[in-house]
Every structure is written in structure tokens, then in C-alpha cells.
Design a protein that fits this description.
33 strands; 6-stranded antiparallel β-barrel; mainly beta; 2 helices
Length: 509
């Protein structure tokens, strides 16, 4: 029986959704990281242009819902809007058929095709031809398939020959299976490179994705320019809201400097049980051979406890060996305030420069969200304060360290960004047992600027002054950044130390 060209399905499409602090960290002598932080923010803003179709789709739905008086209280129970040039529906059997410009919309997710049939009673839908799925969030979707079968009641289904974008990653697969809590891509690829022929990608026989938790790829291969550079039977990483932002599809780091020579790093982790993982940070240097870190960590609700050992390097190329270290860390935002705190505790056997000591440390830091000094947020203050207690069993020394930082950042125009900051640390390399991750001097004034020559090249000058010595210039560094599409080179020259370094930053990895 033929009915109106639009009907509401009283079933849920939530499963077809693919079940799927904001401060720079200043670690160097010149605080140049804040300029790279701004550049990363600008890169993210440019990436949002990829979501233009998503944003237009949301605006279209907002207008449609307002016009038709549709108010969605619970996205999980939102009705389905079924539209098409020709729709047939049998109210007895529940069978429905649509042909020509068929749109199946629920909440902010839509499937578009030319031919679809299903059954309202059983919750089945069958699309034997090409279909396009677009979704606003959780996750962001813009994918195509050649054949789709799905059951909304069971929240299971299959898509064949899938290709498109899920959040910030481009995927393809011979087949994708959907389940209530996860989905699987068979004979698939995954990359963050937007090129038609990606500079790099991950391929796997099977990729299991547990939304906002983790993904596992089996018989995984990592390719650069079509060449396999690494292969493993099983590769796992965090995804979505569970990701710490440091996970990459190709987890390699490559750099050169005068102290280490060429170094190649690789991060690897493996889940052991709920909230527990084993991990390794492997690093080979031509001048120091292997410098690896191994550990086991438990994470839950802002709490982290880990046991580590290995060899560590700070921004000043100071090396330290932790023969064993027990670390507990807890951090979170204070209610709805602009403040966040972090409480760090460590007890470990440290060795550096022939000195071995059981090191005990308690560190409490308080951070304020960036303070906007103008209506557009172009000028911002970044304040923080902390207090650290340290005891060393080597010489029975103990000291307390008050430290605070305030940095002013100004985005002067689209090309020029500048900053200046004042940093105080009661403890420095002259009055502590170890110089690893320790300030070179107690009172520091930093300043720098970044100038974007064009879309591919950026020049940076960064300085550090000893404020306790009549603003004596202690650090003067020059940087040149070049964007090679998915890889950015960072060439650095430290004039006061006469040192060169070259980093390869994998932007979209």
C-alpha cells in the first residue's frame, strides 16, 4: 500500500553510529613549545575545514527539525525519518520499500541511497546498492559502501567495500561488521594522511575498534610511500576519549643532534587486563646504542600507577637511568572552576654521573586555564604554580622547591606570534643532586617569536635570560620548520651551545 513519502520509524539507529586542560607544556630553556602549541591549534582549525559537509548537514537538520517541530530529548530513542521519491509501506507486515533519493535520518546521522527495503517489525534494512553515511559526532562519519545490511533491533550489520573518513582517520575495507559495542574492519587500511595516495598507512587483515577505548589490528603492516617499514602480528592503541593524544598509527620518531647522533624511537604497548597495560619506549641512537624504557601501568579515573625502568633523556640531552621506579599520579579539574591540579609521587633508584640514590619526590602543581586579555583571545596568559619535596638517600639531602610560571602569548597577526614569560624555580642544577629535568638557573625570562613565511615554511627565534644575573643571555636558538605534507622537518641551531639538531615530526600520523 502506498502512503506518504515520509514516515517515522519507531526504532533506534543508535548502533549505526559505528558504536563509536588545555595548556602547552613548557619544558625547554626557551619555552619555544608554546609557539608550536599555537601552530598545532591553527593546524587543527584548518583540519576542521574537512568537516564542511558535516557542518552543512547539521545546519540542514537543525532547520528541518525546527520546521517540523521535532525535539529530540534522548538521542538513543530518537525517531527515524524515512524519505524518498517513492515509498511503499505495509502496516500489517511492517515491510517498507524506498526508491529514488532515499534518506534514512536519525538524530544527526543519515544514510542516503537510491534503493532500500526493510521491515519495521523486525528492524531489518537492506540496501543492495551504493549508500552514503554522514554523521555529526561520536564519531564524525563520512563514508560510502557498496552494499549494506543492518538490524536496528539487534544493533548488528554488515557493510561491503567501505571507504571514507571516521573522525580524523581515513579508512577502507572489504567488509565492516557492526556489533553493539564494537565493529570490525576486514582487509582494511587506516591513515590520517588526506592525500588520494596516502604518504603512509596501516593495513591489517582485521581491525577491531572499541569506540572511545582501544583498537587492535591483526597482521598489521605500516607502510610509507607504499613500502612496508614494520610488521607485527598484533598492534593495539587507544582511541577516542580514551586516547592520551600521543598514539600514532606509525609510532616512530626520528631525529639527529650532536649529542646522540641519529636516533630512532618506537613506542609499543599491550593491554594485560582492564585498565592495565605493559609498554615499551624503544630508542636506538648511533652514539649511545639502545636507550629503552619498560613499564607496566594501571589507569582509572584520573589515577595512574606505574612501575618503570630504563634510560631517560631530557630536553637538555641529560641522561638518567631509573633502575626501578614506582610512580603514582593523580590529576583533574577542580569542579567547574578554571583550575586543574596534578599530584605526582615517585620512589625510585636513580643513577646519573656515577651517583646512585633512592629518590623520593612529591610534587603538587596547580594550573589555571588560559586567561584571555582581549575579546578575540589573541592575547592570553598562562599561569601555574607548584611545590615539590625531594629526598635523596645518597647524601641524606632533602629540599623543597617552590616554582611558578607565567607566560604571555600574543598572536599579532596570521603570520606573527610572540611570547614572553617569567619562571621561578627555587631548585636548579647548582643545588640539586641530579641535573635531569632540573632548571639551569632559578630565575628565567624567556621570549621568542614565530613568523610564517608561507604555508610550508616557518622561522622561529627563541631566547632564555638569567634574571638573577642582569638578564644575561643564556640561550639563543633558531628554528626552521618545513611542511612536507605529512612530515614536518625541524632544523634547530643553539647558538650559545653551538649545537645542531634535526627532527622529523610526523604531522598526521
Amino acid at each position: 500500500m502506498k502512503i506518504e513519502k515520509k514516515i517515522l520509524w519507531a526504532i533506534s539507529l543508535s548502533a549505526l553510529s559505528l558504536c563509536t586542560y588545555n595548556q602547552p607544556v613548557l619544558a625547554s630553556d626557551t619555552d619555544v613549545e608554546i609557539l608550536n602549541y599555537v601552530e598545532d591549534q591553527r593546524r587543527e582549525a584548518r583540519d576542521k575545514e574537512k568537516n564542511r559537509a558535516i557542518n552543512e548537514f547539521k545546519a540542514e537538520l537543525d532547520a528541518q527539525y525546527e520546521k517540523e517541530g521535532i525535539v529530540i530529548q534522548n538521542p538513543q530513542e530518537a525517531p527515524i525519518i524515512f524519505e524518498g521519491n517513492d515509498i511503499m509501506y505495509d502496516s500489517v507486515t511492517g515491510e517498507v520499500y524506498g526508491k529514488g533519493n532515499v534518506k534514512i535520518t536519525q538524530n544527526y546521522s543519515r544514510m542516503t541511497t537510491e534503493d532500500a527495503n526493510g521491515n519495521l517489525n523486525t528492524g531489518d534494512v537492506d540496501i543492495p546498492v551504493h549508500a552514503h553515511v554522514i554523521q555529526v559526532a561520536n564519531p564524525t562519519l563520512d563514508i560510502n559502501s557498496e552494499k549494506t545490511k543492518y538490524n536496528y533491533n539487534e544493533k548488528t550489520g554488515v557493510m561491503n567495500n567501505v571507504k571514507g573518513r571516521v573522525d580524523n582517520r581515513y579508512i577502507s575495507g572489504e567488509q565492516v561488521e557492526f556489533y553493539p559495542d564494537y565493529y570490525i574492519i576486514y582487509n582494511g587500511t587506516m591513515t590520517r594522511c588526506p592525500a588520494k595516495k596516502p604518504d603512509y598507512c596501516l593495513t591489517a587483515d582485521k581491525i577491531e575498534i572499541y569506540p572511545d577505548d582501544h583498537m587492535v589490528a591483526y597482521n598489521a603492516k605500516f607502510l610509507i610511500k607504499g613500502q612496508v617499514i614494520y610488521q607485527t602480528d598484533e598492534y593495539s592503541t587507544k582511541v577516542g576519549t580514551n586516547s592520551d593524544g600521543n598514539n600514532a598509527l606509525i609510532p616512530f620518531r626520528i631525529r639527529y643532534n650532536d649529542d646522540d647522533g641519529v636516533s630512532i624511537g618506537y613506542k609499543l604497548d599491550a593491554p594485560l587486563m582492564d585498565n592495565v597495560k605493559a609498554y615499551a619506549d624503544l630508542k636506538y641512537t648511533t652514539k649511545h646504542d639502545m636507550r629503552n624504557i619498560y613499564g607496566v601501568a594501571w589507569n582509572n579515573s584520573g589515577n595512574t600507577f606505574k612501575i618503570e625502568n630504563g634510560k631517560y633523556e631530557d630536553d637538555d640531552d641529560n641522561w638518567l637511568e631509573r633502575k626501578i621506579s614506582y610512580v603514582y599520579n593523580y590529576g583533574r579539574r577542580i569542579g567547574s572552576s578554571p583550575f586543574s591540579f596534578n599530584f605526582y609521587n615517585e620512589y625510585g633508584l636513580w643513577e646519573q654521573h656515577g651517583i646512585e640514590s633512592w629518590h623520593r619526590e612529591h610534587n603538587l602543581s596547580l594550573h589555571h586555564d588560559p586567561i584571555n586579555l582581549d575579546t578575540e583571545g589573541k592575547f592570553r596568559l598562562y599561569p601555574s604554580i607548584g611545590y615539590k619535596l625531594v629526598y635523596e638517600d645518597y647524601d641524606d639531602s632533602n629540599y623543597n622547591n617552590l616554582y611558578y610560571d607565567i607566560t604571555l602569548l600574543g598572536e599579532l597577526n596570521d603570520r606573527l606570534v610572540a611570547y614572553t614569560g617569567y619562571h621561578y624555580s627555587r631548585t636548579n642544577v647548582d643545588n640539586s643532586l641530579f641535573d635531569y629535568n632540573t632548571a639551569d638557573y632559578s630565575k628565567k625570562v624567556s621570549a621568542g617569536l614565530s613568523y610564517s613565511i608561507d604555508d610550508k615554511n616557518r622561522f622561529v627565534v627563541a631566547t632564555g635570560f638569567d634574571a638573577s644575573d642582569d638578564l644575561y643571555l643564556r640561550d639563543l636558538d633558531y628554528y626552521w620548520y618545513h611542511d612536507w605534507h605529512c612530515v614536518e622537518t625541524e632544523l634547530k641551531y643553539e647558538q650559545k651551545k653551538d649545537k645542531w639538531s634535526l627532527h622529523f615530526n610526523f604531522l598526521n600520523f
